[in-house]
Amino acid sequence: QVQLVESGGGLVQAGGSLRLSCAASGRTFNSNTMGWFRQLPGKERAFVAAIDGSGGDTAYADSVKGRFTISRDNAKNTVSLQMNGLKPEDTAVYLCAAEGSPLTNPQDMRVRMTSYYWGQGTQVTVSS
């Protein structure tokens, strides 16, 4: 059974930083795009960032470019999101996502705004 488990969320002041991590189990995703979405109550999930299997190709939402950095460690089957310069509008539940097919690239994930496997999410709250 595939599981994606997020960690690293919390409460931070505006301008601060957080690092989210997602640990995958049940299968390896070394060839597959992984990414992060975020969601507010009653709202649709919004794409944040994605990275391909090699780590050489990434995609970001315009709202986080230059502030967030996605990375992965294939030896540990993990993907991380370093979030700097946090703003109150970054407050959301952040969900880890992983593609089931190695054919899906980060731009596909950004455009389609969906994925195959999902974590339960971790809350990020940014106070002003």
Descriptive terms for the model:
128 residues; mainly beta; 7-stranded mixed sheet; 4-stranded antiparallel sheet
Brief characterization of the structure:
The protein contains 1 helix and 11 strands; from the N terminus they run βββββββββαββ. The protein is mainly beta. A hairpin with a 4-residue loop joins strand 7 (68-73) and strand 8.
Description of the molecule:
The strands form 2 sheets. Strands 2, 4, 5, 6, 9, 10 and 11 form a 7-stranded mixed beta sheet that branches. Strands 1-3-8-7 form a 4-stranded antiparallel beta sheet, with no helix packed on it. The longest helix has 7 residues, at about 105-110. It has 1 helix and 11 strands, in the order E-E-E-E-E-E-E-E-E-H-E-E. It has about 130 residues and is mainly beta.
